[in-house]
Automatic annotation (TrEMBL), chain A:
Name of this protein: DNA replication complex GINS protein PSF1
Complex and partners: Component of the GINS complex.
Region (Disordered): 48-76
Domain of life: Eukaryota
Biological process annotations from GO: DNA strand elongation involved in mitotic DNA replication
Role played: Required for correct functioning of the GINS complex, a complex that plays an essential role in the initiation of DNA replication, and progression of DNA replication forks. GINS complex seems to bind preferentially to single-stranded DNA.
Species of provenance: Oleoguttula mirabilis
Encoding gene, per UniProt annotation: PSF1
Low complexity composition-biased segments: 52-67
TrEMBL record, chain B:
Species whose genome carries this gene: Oleoguttula mirabilis
Stretches assigned to the GINS subunit domain: 58-150
BP GO annotations: DNA-templated DNA replication; double-strand break repair via break-induced replication
A cellular-component GO term for this protein: GINS complex
Protein name, as recorded: DNA replication complex GINS protein SLD5
Main localisation: nucleus
Stored CDD domains: GINS_A_Sld5, GINS_B_Sld5
Function: The GINS complex plays an essential role in the initiation of DNA replication.
Source domain of life: Eukaryota
Domain DNA replication complex GINS protein SLD5 C-terminal, first and last residues per copy: 175-230
Keywords: DNA replication, Nucleus
Length: 228, 230
């Protein structure tokens, strides 16, 4: 059935929305959908071939709907017109599904960039998650090569934008600040940090009363846990 | 925009209120408006500039005070730092809300910004700040490059566009202008038309009134500063 594979992608995208990690990139399905679009396009040009005069290569590049109107009259042959319409709509639908799927994934990746997760960590985390799912198979990244590149470029872009607002720390907490000092427990050794009140050595399982702004980043990275 | 804010603030608060307090009020208002309106609002560049200037000064003050290490100043220091954190939070949340909107409807805002730059050479308060515009451009560049390398490049050329409007459906998503917002009228602002299910009626915007109303009906009043969102 037309657009069946694409539908799979959309369902997948819907599922990704609520997942904490990013499942592997559905390369096979994406390829199948792209192939379907190419097949449909070929069929359209085959259907139109008898109607187009000489310069078929130029009409190909023009927009689909105009193509129908200019080179052939739908009233003469409703069956062909219908086939063309269905093909065109299916192609568009496939394209939208692909876009939706990719956008969903990039949104997710962007969210990770904003929340301060390191690029390498994203890959590791998703790789291990997918590894667990598939029964501990080879730990391959669940990002496609293009996505990996995208993440790199996006985090560069984000860093550039953030750099203009150094006083604000754009990726900081979006919770309204209540106290400037908070209690934290150290979950992983984080070494020594410098604060305005001297340096603290963060060793595992110890507890501190520190300024929130000083340890914000460490909380996000999972070294510290905030105690309420 | 700035003058407008000044006007509203003058009308709602005592005239003796210093600029600092006015800015805080204006920033809070801009922040609430931005977070609740479905559409991106013009960027209050002067306000943000003034606030950032003050944040920078405050950071310096705090650094100076920590330098002296006087135990008596510790309490003041805590208050100053709390204030600073709150200011930072306001600006951060404000900017993030804007970025989120820009990322949601990138094509729409790009077209809007382009239209604006063509219409007038220098508007007092443009829709996007210079930085936001840069961000939008490069982000879109990255996205379309990503789409192309992932699948679009193997598509027929007629289908490779990202802002296609053929087939009766525009690919460019727009913010929902008819969604409802809660708002409070700060200044008498005449009447607006309300589109009901069957007929249209008018509503008088009088100072102090609170409405649940379609965004499209009050968006102009909000941009003028006559109405604030809550």
């Amino acid at each position: 059935m037309y657009a069946e594979q694409a539908n799979k992608l959309v369902l997948d995208a819907k599922r990704i929305q609520n997942l904490p990690h990013l499942p592997p990139y559905a390369a096979t399905t994406v390829r199948a959908v792209t192939k379907e679009v190419r097949d449909l396009d070929r069929e359209v040009s085959n259907l139109l071939a008898p109607y187009s005069s000489g310069s078929s290569s130029t009409t190909q590049s023009s927009d689909g709907t105009q193509q129908i109107k200019s080179s052939f009259s739908p009233a003469d042959d409703p069956a062909t017109a219908c086939a063309l319409l269905v093909n065109h709509l299916s192609m568009r639908r496939n394209k939208r599904c692909l876009l939706a799927y990719h956008r969903m994934r990039t949104d997710k990746l962007e969210g990770m960039c904003w929340s301060g997760v390191d690029v390498a960590e994203i890959q590791d985390a998703s790789a291990s998650a997918s590894g667990r799912q598939s029964g501990g198979g080879a730990a391959t990244s669940s990002l496609s090569a293009e996505e990996e590149q995208y993440v790199h470029q996006y985090s560069d872009l984000l860093a550039a934008y953030k750099g203009q607002w150094t006083d604000i720390d754009l990726t900081g907490s979006l919770e309204p600040p209540r106290d400037i000092f908070i209690d934290v427990r150290v979950l992983r050794d984080a070494g020594e940090i410098q604060t305005e009140y001297g340096s603290i050595t963060l060793t595992r399982n110890s507890q501190f009363y520190v300024r929130q702004a000083d340890v914000e980043r460490l909380i996000q990275q999972g070294y510290l846990q905030r105690l309420s | 925009m700035d003058d407008d804010i000044q006007d509203i603030l003058d009308s709602v608060s005592r005239p003796s209120v210093p600029q600092r307090t006015l800015d805080l009020q204006a920033l809070t208002r801009a922040w609430v408006n931005e977070r609740t309106s479905p559409e991106l609002l013009p960027y209050p560049s002067d306000l943000v500039e003034r606030v950032m200037e003050r944040v920078k000064k405050q950071i310096e003050t705090i650094e100076d005070m920590t330098g002296t290490a006087d135990p008596k100043s510790n309490f003041t220091l805590v208050i100053l730092q709390t204030e600073l954190e709150r200011f930072k939070f306001l600006v951060r949340s404000f900017l993030r809300a804007r970025i989120a909107k820009i990322d949601k409807y990138p094509h729409h805002y790009r077209a809007e910004a382009l239209k604006e730059s063509q219409a007038t050479l220098s508007t007092p308060s443009p829709l996007l700040s210079h930085l936001e515009q840069q961000y939008l451009q490069s982000h879109q560049g990255l996205l379309s490059q990503h789409y192309h390398s992932s699948f679009l490049s193997s598509f027929p050329t007629a289908l490779q566009k990202l802002d296609d409007t053929a087939g009766g459906i525009s690919m460019v998503d727009k913010p929902e202008e008819d969604s409802a917002v809660f708002c409070r009228v700060l200044r008498d602002a005449g009447s607006v038309e309300i589109q009901g299910a069957t007929s249209a009626s008018e509503a008088e915007l009088r100072r102090g009134d609170v409405f649940v109303i379609r965004w499209s009906a009050v968006s102009d009043a909000v941009k003028r500063g006559d109405v604030e969102l809550i």
